[in-house]
Amino acid sequence: MGRANKGMFFKVTEPISSKLRYNNNSSIPGSHYIPKRLHDPHTNVNRDNKLLFRQRYMNEDRDLYYFSMLRPDKNGLCFKPEKRYSLTNHRFENHSQPSRILGSLDGILCLEDELESGNIVLWNPVTDELKFLPPSSIEPEEDLTDTYFDSAFGFDARSGDYKVVRCVHHRYFYCDDRPIRLTYQFELYSLKNDSWRPILNPVDVEFPAVSIPTNVNGSCYFDFCFKIVSFDFADEVFSVLPLPPIINYRFLCGIDGSTLDLIDYPRKGDRRRYDLWSWKSSKRCWSNVDSFVVEGVERPLLLWGRDKCFLEGNNLELLLFDLKTRELKPLGIKDTPPWRVKSLSRPENKLVPFVESTVSIKGLSKVG
């Protein structure tokens, strides 16, 4: 099956299993879970759901990045770029590597330096207000070789506080003929207190996460290679989830921010099978709810509503797959290839749900 021309639909021809159940509310494209705090009439939030798509452009000899705000039509089938937001006015992301998007809540983006320096900022693109988080509370030993960070952004509904939880991996070499020693510690940032503090972790974390964490119902989920670790932002406790019987690469995601889902797919091949798994918390097990095969797709980007999945094409074009009609539609929106080959340690998160907001980041903090 060849690729479709720009703006045209094309069918997936291979027989596909579909076990998704739809209801009157969940089938509405873009009907994302909205936290209760946004129903407060005093919050300055526009609850129309949009998307932010990070794109690059070349300036002289380096790549620079900006965010395109995409608004869906009433049918959720077409997405039109409306505005551009950029961090170039700040002393963050002025290098060739993109920042890692840790999450988006109430119009606030949480971004982490992709160069593994551990710098994290909170940014409201609408007001262009930027807040740098303070340095880590965890001090490494003297023989430190490398440091890796796995971070997640969330909201504590009990205290009304935005928080960031982070796993700090320290890698050490004793000498050339000795194996690597890897240590890890967790810490938690509170926007109200504007500070980090170490937190205890009863879960063994042997390797850095293989993908960017996802946020569902006040908890974040890390994929630490052989296990999925969740953290509840209100109770500040960790728990471990088993993995489904998958054999390929996986992508953690959440439908409507209310259910935890996982997409299993191979990293190579032009024709790939994508398996969608959903976590059943009452039974503490995974259920395979859908499978589909498409050509010319590089990787999944985001589940939109309960019946749409955004994908990245091999040519960096943004694609939309309809889980009900089994149609794959190019949206006519493309990223620009990098001017040089980059070897990122993990796939970059480049598409996130977004609501326009004039919420002040500094106004939410007691300090700063």
From TrEMBL:
It holds the Pfam family FBA_1. Residues 79-245 form the F-box associated beta-propeller type domain. It comes from the Eukaryota. InterPro entries: F-box-assoc_dom_typ1, F-box-assoc_interact_dom, Gal_Oxase/kelch_b-propeller, SCF_F-box_component. NCBIfam families: F_box_assoc_1. This is F-box associated beta-propeller type 1 domain-containing protein.
